[in-house]
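>> received
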Amino acid sequence: MSSSHTSHSPELLEVVRWTGRLGAVTAEAVAHRQARPLASARGLLLSGERAGLLRRCRVLANAPTLYSVTRAGLRVTDLRGLEPSRVSVANAPHAIACAEVAAALELAYPDHDVMGERELRRDERDAGEALASASLGAARAAALHRPDLVLWPAGPGLRLPVAVEVELTVKAPRRLLEICQAWARCRCVAGTLYLAAPEVWRALERAIDGAQARERVVAVALDALVGTEAPSSAPSASTVPSDT
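>> returned
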């Protein structure tokens, strides 16, 4: 099977590249992002599977099927420093949500580039420093907490990125407070946007208040961005924390 660039359509290569950048995507997210019918998005992903560029991963009943990139898909799209992601029952709900959020953010903020956590990890490894991650301690060797997605301003200028967290499950209160405190003092991002499921909203609000992070951390209901009306119901640019 050939993996040359010329043997695949540009639209297929583009969706394979997006899949590789995020780790896994759904047909629903592709349809949303490209404003195409769901059946068309499924056909495109299936053609990527037949070409050996994508792998279909259906691990949850009554949930969208996930597609992850293969090594051949990474090669044909020139995605350096990334490995095929592993989809499991444990990480599938979060991967589905992140794909939907990434698609919605691209449409809501066309002047930004949306990066996934795996790309950020690669770039920070190459740079040897945090680019859009929060330090969980004061020591130089403190662990980094990486966001699920990053909104990078496009075009000229030195504007800082916005960290995006997709919160589906309730973390231990102490852990969530520690993360919110880390984002409150993080100065390599303009601020942090939390997209929270209803069941975690109250705990997240308490953590943001406990960290005194209201000026640096904004919480928005996940359904407001990826609901049936997205992206028209997506948060406006003023919702994203400023870098002031």
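>> Residues 228-239 have pLDDT under 50 and may be disordered.
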